[in-house]
From TrEMBL:
<dbReference type="Pfam" id="PF17831">
    <property type="entry name" value="PDH_E1_M"/>
</dbReference>
<dbReference type="InterPro" id="IPR005474">
    <property type="entry name" value="Transketolase_N"/>
</dbReference>
<dbReference type="InterPro" id="IPR009014">
    <property type="entry name" value="Transketo_C/PFOR_II"/>
</dbReference>
<dbReference type="InterPro" id="IPR029061">
    <property type="entry name" value="THDP-binding"/>
</dbReference>
<dbReference type="InterPro" id="IPR005475">
    <property type="entry name" value="Transketolase-like_Pyr-bd"/>
</dbReference>
<keyword id="KW-0670">Pyruvate</keyword>
<protein>
    <recommendedName>
        <fullName>Pyruvate dehydrogenase E1 component</fullName>
        <ecNumber>1.2.4.1</ecNumber>
    </recommendedName>
</protein>
<comment type="similarity">
    <text>Belongs to the transketolase family.</text>
</comment>
<comment type="function">
    <text>Component of the pyruvate dehydrogenase (PDH) complex, that catalyzes the overall conversion of pyruvate to acetyl-CoA and CO(2).</text>
</comment>
<feature type="domain" description="Transketolase-like pyrimidine-binding">
    <location>
        <begin position="420"/>
        <end position="625"/>
    </location>
</feature>
<dbReference type="InterPro" id="IPR051157">
    <property type="entry name" value="PDH/Transketolase"/>
</dbReference>
<dbReference type="InterPro" id="IPR004660">
    <property type="entry name" value="PDH_E1"/>
</dbReference>
<dbReference type="InterPro" id="IPR041621">
    <property type="entry name" value="PDH_E1_M"/>
</dbReference>
<keyword id="KW-0560">Oxidoreductase</keyword>
<keyword id="KW-0786">Thiamine pyrophosphate</keyword>
<dbReference type="Pfam" id="PF00456">
    <property type="entry name" value="Transketolase_N"/>
</dbReference>
Length: 784
């Protein structure tokens, strides 16, 4: 490097160091203000993780001010959110008012949130590990779009995760790592703040080399940023090798304790342990206490030169990178290295000492550049303005609305006669979509955790193929071995086949469901899995919905009706999961035509401004289809319920059913008509949508000052108040038992409250009281 370039580089590093100090200050002050200065009306600790912020500040400064480009996307370590908000404030993307309201209503969020923060959040984080894994699937989604020419080569971004080393204990990271290896992952950086401390203690020493080995085995390039420039220079001096060896073999807890105690403690311990090495002792003696403390704690993750060199190397290719950046948790703060520092907060005296040390003028704490000369302020503002990431580029895209199939079009795919299951109807609709030549069909992408065939997605995949960046030959087809699965694999495929890890399914749906805002290209993701195993990926499903990712989730088969498979496969609580999950409309149709109508509705909801994702709980049970005399039932299917048999004004009973138990409800209702000729039969397609509408209507009476009648109130108004309801669902009876509260009807709720077992439907429905006889017994009880 020429002398002029070297000088310019040094000047830039010096400016970056100055800026990094001010980012640390603003993040620390934001937390301090929230905990010590802002009025506390409830007496609760606000929190904010000053130590976790301090260990990430250098890494984030280097990333955002030098390495990051507008097309890159970042999942920020949750506990470093104040650093993120401080940096965004410097870019003019976060307001001072929001910093002052950090962790308060409407202010900067505790953890970066796509939907709650106003600044440039790419991926919500908070549930540790999930924000890491989503970047891998976002890279896969970007490759999927790039294969279709929707993301140009020059616009390809890196999907970057900033994570704490304790997050590496999360199993979902390794599930994602395996899937990433299968899909030939690229353009992904995971940057680990390796401070060797978790919430409760220091981490185990034996993990010293294991993480790198794991990622290298998965095909990642591992960059270990262990030593700072200052340390490398010291190691070159006489006695330096011994000092380096001491640090490398020091237990994590001892290193952390000495970091907290400072230079004098370092000197005492090093002098004792290196007593037989005169050169090493002379090296230690050459430093003052404060300088020795800085030498021993300024690791690679705190050295801008080291970090920038590593980022520059990584930018030369698209190989996935795993950076292990050694840091000290809480560096430069009074509790650096202390094992209890995770939730630690500086007191007023300590924050004042930090302010004085950094040269911030008292009373100007919210000015990140306070106390600097005019020349320094100009230089630092110029540095921020020149950052590639500061470019005025639209990063939160709005994708054009795509014409989706109408309900009539999808109804034609399922037909109306004979016996059908809702799962089979889903497969027919997807097969029909695969045959379409329109833009919508080209934007449908399906995915499944190794249950593609058993959830009736096979026909779609036969027509549309499996996505992979490298084409793979179907050996069975070439060798003329008959198979129902004719799956071509290559860049044009529209199905992403996953291993049997439900967590990966939901994180993949999160990434595919965010392509519109992230890349400006709308996809219509459809994911399938077995209904009982929603619970295995529930954290990731919640994470996807929290970000407002949009997709259609099809869970099938479901309930006790999956009879021969036994209790481990028979879902119970999933209707309640659907009801309780924000951002997800949950439906359980009984008939094929209902399934088709709901699929058309779900595709509309994916791209509606006030839309959401949709969950269809389906069944493999083939049942006789309902006879329709008009199309009035369609609105009720979407709204959550409709009268299959409208009650007489003076009836004493109505049967309410949901999903695959429609035949039992119909049989019981037919028998009931002998004694109660006016009995009603209510088809519920969504306890979720019904309940949400009912509670919203109730709130509107006192929050909006306007009375509104909900769907379920309107429907149940057809029944006298003294009438009784018997509800029936192949799942937790609680999903429907609330109906008695709507208008005060007496109610008996039938459903599944214990684990099932293997058997056929007559035996199991009889044993668990889900048959027509149980419905009639409940009706008799109400009339007694």
């Amino acid at each position: 490097m020429a002398d002029g370039s070297l000088t310019a580089r040094r000047q830039e590093i010096a400016l970056l160091r100055r800026l990094e100090e001010r980012i640390l200050w603003l993040a620390s002050w934001t937390i301090h203000n929230a905990n010590h200065l802002r009025e506390s009306r409830d007496g609760l600790k606000v929190g904010g993780h000053q130590a976790s912020c301090a260990s990430m500040t250098t890494l984030m400064t280097a990333l955002y001010m030098k390495a990051l480009r507008p097309q890159d996307r970042v999942a920020v370590k949750p506990h470093a959110s104040p650093v993120f908000h401080a940096i965004q404030h410097l870019f003019g993307r976060q307001t001072l008012d929001n910093l002052k309201r950090f962790r308060a209503l409407g202010g900067a969020q505790s953890y970066p949130s796509r939907t709650k923060d106003i600044d440039d959040v790419d991926f919500s984080t908070g549930s540790v590990g999930l924000g890491v894994a989503v970047t891998a699937f976002a890279s896969l989604a970007q490759d999927y779009l790039a294969a279709r020419g929707s993301v140009k080569p020059e616009a390809m971004g890196r999907m970057i995760s900033l994570l704490g080393d304790a997050e590496l204990d999360e199993g979902n990271i390794y599930e994602a790592l395996i899937e990433a290896c299968k899909h030939d992952l690229r353009n992904t950086w995971w940057i680990v703040d390796y401070n060797r401390q978790s919430l409760d203690a220091t981490t185990k020493d034996r993990m010293f080399t294991r993480y790198g080995e794991i990622f290298e085995a998965a095909g990642w390039t591992v960059e270990t940023l262990k030593w700072s420039k200052r340390q490398r220079e010291a190691f070159e001096r006489p006695g330096g090798k011994a000092l380096k060896a001491w640090i490398e073999t020091a237990p994590n807890d001892l290193y952390a304790a000495l970091s907290y105690q400072g230079g004098a403690a370092w000197r005492e311990r090093l002098t004792a342990d290196l007593s037989g090495d005169a050169a090493a002792l002379a090296l230690v003696a050459s430093y003052k206490d404060v300088d020795l403390g800085e030498l021993m704690t300024e690791l690679g993750g705190h050295c801008l030169e080291t970090i920038l060199e590593a980022f520059e190397r990584a930018s030369r290719d698209d190989a996935p990178r795993f950076f292990i950046a050694y840091t000290v948790k809480g560096l430069r703060l009074p509790f650096q290295g202390h094992k209890d520092n995770h939730a630690g907060l500086m007191n007023p005296t300590q924050i004042a000492e930090l302010r004085e040390r950094l040269g911030v003028v008292e009373g100007e704490e919210w000015d990140a550049l306070s106390g600097l000369s005019s020349a320094e302020r100009t230089a630092l503002k110029g540095l921020v303005a020149r950052a590639p990431f500061a470019a005025a580029v639209e990063r939160n895209h709005k994708a054009p609305v795509v014409a989706t199939p109408s309900a009539d079009e999808l109804l034609s795919a399922v037909g109306g006669a004979g016996e059908q299951s809702t799962q089979a109807a889903f497969g027919k609709v997807m097969f029909d979509i695969a045959a379409r030549k329109d833009e919508f069909a080209g934007r449908v992408v399906t995915t499944s955790p190794d249950v593609t065939v058993s959830t009736n997605l096979g026909g779609f995949v036969n027509r549309r193929g499996v996505f992979h960046r490298r084409a793979h030959e179907d050996v069975f087809k070439r060798r003329r071995i008959p198979s129902a699965q004719v799956w071509s694999m290559g860049e044009t495929g529209q199905h992403v086949e996953l291993g049997i890890a439900e967590n990966n399914l939901f994180i993949a749906l999160a990434a595919l469901g965010l392509t519109a805002p992230l890349f400006g290209e709308r996809l219509f993701p459809v994911g399938t899995l077995y209904d009982p195993f929603i619970a295995r990926g529930l954290d990731a499903l919640n994470y996807a919905c929290y970000q407002d990712a949009r997709f259609l989730l099809v869970a099938t088969p479901s309930g006790l009706t999956l009879a021969p498979e036994g209790g481990a496969h028979q879902s119970i609580g999933s209707p309640l999961i659907g009801m309780s999950q924000p951002g997800l409309d949950s439906y359980e149709p009984a008939f094929a035509d209902e399934t088709a109508v709901l699929m058309a509705h779900a595709f509309d909801r994916i791209q509606a401004a006030d839309g959401s994702s949709t969950y269809l709980r389906l069944s493999t049970r083939a049942i006789a289809q309902a006879e329709r005399v008009d199309a009035a039932w369609r609105a009720g299917v979407v709204e959550g319920a409709y009268w299959l048999k409208r009650p007489a004004p003076d009836t004493r009973l109505a049967v309410v059913y949901c999903g695959a138990l429609a035949p039992e409800a119909l049989e019981a209702h037919a028998a009931l008509l002998e004694d109660e000729p006016g009995a009603g039969l209510l088809a519920v397609t969504s306890p979720d949508v019904l309940h949400r509408d009912w509670t919203a209507a109730g709130r509107s009476r006192w929050t909006e000052g306007a009375a509104r009648t909900s769907t379920v109130e309107r429907l149940l108004a057809d029944l006298p108040r003294e009438a009784g309801l018997v509800t029936l669902i192949d799942g937790a009876p609680t999903a429907l038992s609330w109906l008695g509260s709507v208008r005060g009807h007496r109610l008996r709720a039938l459903g599944l409250e214990t684990f099932g077992q293997s058997g056929d439907l007559p035996d199991l429905y009889g044993k668990y009281r889900l048959d027509a006889e149980a419905v009639l017994d409940a009706c008799a009880d109400l009339l007694a």
